[in-house]
Write a structure and sequence with these properties.
about 400 residues; mainly beta; Immunoglobulin-like; 3 domains; 11-stranded antiparallel beta sheet; 6-stranded antiparallel beta sheet; 2 helices; 30 strands; about 5% helix
C-alpha cells in the first residue's frame, strides 16, 4: 500500500526562504483556529474521490461540476481545501468541520477548461495529498440521448477491455473498454467512470439508432497499484462495472523515472506525476514517484524557481529545493529541505530543462537527514520527467 506526503509541507522552507514571512498552511492560510486531519485511510491510501459532472471545453463550469472528497477530521475547525489550477480550472471548498471523524465534502469546480485533455489535479489537506484525473471534452449541443447501461451493478454485459495496463505507465490510445447500452431515444451521450487506481475512462458521441449499442470508453491516467480493479460506470440512471488488471513493469529511464543510492541501498521507481505550478506564491517544479513494483514508498523532489519559467541550473536544498523519501507509514526515511538544519544537510540538484521537448532531467547528490535525525550521504541520484 502507498502512503503519500504532500510536497507543499516539504517545501515550507522554500516559502520561508523566499518570502521571509510567517509560514501558512496551504489549505488553511492561517496558523490557528483551523481544522486538522488527513485525506488518507488507516492503511495510508487516499479515501475515494468521486467525480461529478461533464467538463466541456470553453464552457464555464456550474454547480453540476464537483468532486466528492472524504476527509478524516482530527481536530474540528474551519477549512479551505483547494486543488492546483490545471487547464484553466480547479476545485475549491470552504467551510467548518463540526466534529472529528470521516466527513464528506464537495469541492466545487471553478473556471473553464481550455483544451480537450485529461488533467491531473492535486488536492491537499494537512500533510496529506491525493491526485485525481478529470477529462475535458469538446462541447455537445444536440439533444441528449435516453439510454441505460446493460448489465448489473457488478458486471457490464459483454465488456471488452483492450490494451496493457502497467504500474506507473500512463494509459494511451490502446487502452479502451467497450460496453453495451440500450438506447430508447437517439441523441448525444457522455459516459465517464470515476477515477479508480489512477485511471479514468470516458466516451462521448451520438446514438443514431435505438436498441442495443456498443460504446467505447477511452482510458487515461496512470495506474499506481498492481492487481485487479473493478471500475464502476454510472450513466442513464444505471450502474455496471468492468475489471482492469494492472501488472508490474520495468523501470525505463528512456521515459520518466528516478533513482538514488544511500550506502549499499539502491532505490528506484517511476515518476507518476509532474507539475509546474505555484505553491504559496512560488513557482515550483514538482516530481512525484512511487518505488518500482511495490509502490510502498514515495519519492518527492521540488525545485523552486525565481521566475515563471523552468530554468536549468544548480539548486540546493538549503535554499530553493526540497527532497523527501517516505514509507507506507507516512514516516520520512530521508529528507533535505531549507528547514532541515539539525543536523545541517546539503543536497545539490543539477537540472536540465528542454522547453521544446518539455523534458526535465538531472542529477542530485549530497547529504540528507535519515529517520534517526542523522546526516547520511545520497549518491548517484538522477531523474527524468516529461511535463504535460
Amino acid at each position: 500500500m502507498k502512503l503519500i506526503k504532500h510536497l507543499a509541507v516539504l517545501l515550507a522552507g522554500i516559502v520561508i526562504m523566499a518570502s521571509c514571512q510567517k509560514e501558512y498552511s496551504i489549505e488553511t492560510g492561517s496558523a490557528g483556529g483551523r481544522a486538522t486531519g488527513t485525506l488518507k485511510d488507516s492503511l495510508g491510501d487516499c479515501q475515494p474521490i468521486t467525480l461529478r459532472g461533464i467538463y466541456f471545453v470553453d464552457s464555464t463550469l456550474t454547480d453540476s461540476n464537483y468532486v466528492i472528497l472524504q476527509v478524516n477530521v482530527t481536530v474540528p475547525g474551519s477549512y479551505t481545501i483547494t486543488t492546483d489550477l490545471q487547464n484553466g480550472y480547479g476545485f475549491r471548498d470552504t467551510g467548518f468541520f463540526l466534529a472529528p471523524g470521516l466527513t464528506r465534502i464537495k469541492l466545487k469546480a471553478v473556471g473553464r477548461p481550455t483544451l480537450p485533455v485529461t488533467s491531473d489535479f492535486t488536492v491537499t489537506f494537512g500533510n496529506s495529498f491525493c491526485i485525481f484525473s478529470v477529462p475535458a471534452i469538446s462541447g455537445i449541443t444536440a439533444p441528449a440521448a435516453v439510454y441505460t447501461l446493460s448489465g448489473t451493478a457488478n458486471n457490464c454485459t459483454n465488456a471488452v477491455v483492450q490494451g496493457t495496463y502497467t504500474l506507473g505507465t500512463a494509459l494511451n490510445a490502446s487502452n479502451t473498454v467497450s460496453i453495451q447500452v440500450n438506447v430508447t431515444q437517439v441523441g448525444t451521450y457522455v459516459i465517464s467512470t470515476s477515477q479508480t487506481n489512477g485511471m479514468i475512462f470516458l466516451g462521448n458521441g451520438t446514438f443514431n439508432a435505438t436498441g442495443i449499442q456498443s460504446v467505447t470508453l477511452r482510458g487515461s491516467g496512470t495506474p499506481v497499484k498492481v492487481g485487479a480493479n473493478a471500475i464502476p460506470v454510472t450513466a442513464g440512471g444505471t450502474t455496471c462495472a468492468f475489471t482492469v488488471n494492472v501488472v508490474g513493469g520495468s523501470i525505463n529511464f528512456a521515459d520518466s523515472a528516478w533513482q538514488f543510492t544511500q550506502g549499499s541501498k539502491v532505490f528506484h521507481g517511476t515518476i507518476d506525476s509532474v507539475a509546474f505550478s505555484k505553491l504559496n506564491g512560488i513557482d515550483v517544479l514538482q516530481l512525484y514517484g512511487l518505488t518500482y513494483n511495490t509502490g510502498d514508498s514515495l519519492f518527492v523532489l521540488g525545485i523552486g524557481m525565481t521566475s515563471s519559467n523552468i530554468q536549468s541550473g544548480t539548486y540546493n536544498t538549503s535554499t530553493f529545493a526540497a527532497f523527501n523519501f517516505s514509507d507506507v507509514k507516512d514516516s520520512t526515511i530521508y529528507q533535505a529541505n531549507p528547514t532541515t538544519i539539525s543536523p545541517l544537510v546539503n543536497l545539490s540538484i543539477v537540472l536540465n530543462y528542454d522547453a521544446a521537448t518539455k523534458i526535465a532531467q538531472g542529477t542530485f547528490t549530497g547529504t540528507a537527514q535519515n529517520a534517526a535525525k542523522a546526516s547520511v550521504p545520497i549518491t548517484l541520484g538522477k531523474f527524468k520527467a516529461v511535463l504535460p
